[in-house]
Design a protein that fits this description.
This protein is mainly α and 111 residues long. It contains 5 helices and 3 strands. It has a 3-stranded mixed sheet with strand order 1-3-2, sandwiched between helices.
């Protein structure tokens, strides 16, 4: 699967909206599924590769979600990625390990 369906895009946007409220984020969040677009417009210093599940630009509230990596995985992994990236925006100085722990409080993934 190379992309999300319109229904999946709607679901992603709804999850972002709900979690933005739950996390009390003041930043307006936008997302893309295009790595080319994300790499063109994200802040300098954000390191993102085509093998990442997602990425966040903590300065601008811009999220990339990798449709290729999420294509055949359970929806819980997509939800985990969305929340993970939102937590990077809320807590830009938190370590990756702590972001994972915090994300798992919302949508734990099997180890």
């Amino acid at each position: 699967v190379m992309g999300f369906t319109p229904l999946e895009h709607e679901w992603i946007q709804n999850i972002i909206h709900m979690m933005t409220n739950i996390l009390k984020l003041d930043t307006k969040i936008t997302y893309t599924t295009s790595l080319e677009h994300f790499n063109r417009y994200h802040a300098v210093g954000t390191k993102t590769t085509k093998d990442d599940m997602g990425s966040a630009d903590t300065d601008y509230g811009y999220i990339w979600i990798n449709p290729k990596e999420h294509g055949n995985r359970p929806v819980s992994e997509l939800m985990n990625t969305i929340i993970h990236e939102l937590l990077h925006i809320k807590y830009p100085d938190m370590s990756e390990e702590d972001i994972i722990k915090e994300t798992d409080k919302y949508v734990p993934l099997p180890k």
